[in-house]
Amino acid sequence: MKKTDIIILAVVLLALVVVRSVFNIPNFNPMGAVALMGGMLAAKKLWSWVLPFAALFLGDAIMGLSSPMYAEYLFSANFFFVYASFAAIIGVGIFFRKNPSLTKVFGGSILAAVAFFLISNAGSWMLMPQYSKDFAGLMTSYEMALPFFRATLVSQIIFSCSIYLVYQLATSKKVALA
């Protein structure tokens, strides 16, 4: 990966941090796509981790400064489950990084949304007192979160495919469909 490619990828990811910070729509944001595509497109594994986590934390810090409620979230137990979700999503991106294509981005987006759903809601189950601490309580936490999954899935697919296409076009690479 050339230095200009890293800069282009970083600019695209940072632009999406701004989108998330300005248009804070619950469960419809680009951060899962930032994690997936950072893992998939960054040529060096170090950048696969640094770029997405830096973008995610920058967005969280900006939102924390603008909202007392969001500031309480920073470094809470829930915060760590969300970041664990993003680590899994970066891992999915790294898994699909060989010969990236629109098909791999689409499949990776579905896996990323499912990973986020499973990990973050398992965290809610563990941390929130309204869920019984047994299998039934875990299933209840997943059931209660299902209405939010659609927005997560749709945003993951839209933003991931958009990042892939913009990056491929900006770096003058051929867009592989499959």
Description:
By secondary structure, the chain is an all-alpha fold. It has one domain. Helix content is 79%, strand content 0%. It contains seven helices and no strands. Helix 1 packs parallel to helix 3. The longest helix has 36 residues. The mean pLDDT is 88.
The helix/strand series, from N terminus to C terminus, equals: HHHHHHH
Q: What distance lies between the first and last C-alpha atoms, to the nearest angstrom?
A: 21 Å
Q: What structural class do helix, strand and pairing data support?
A: mainly alpha
The radius of gyration computed from the alpha-carbon positions, rounded to a whole number of angstroms, is: 16 Å
Number of helices: 7
Identify the quaternary structure here: single chain
Measured by DSSP, the beta-strand proportion falls in under 5%
The parts where pLDDT drops under 50 for at least 5 residues are none
What is the residue-averaged pLDDT? 88
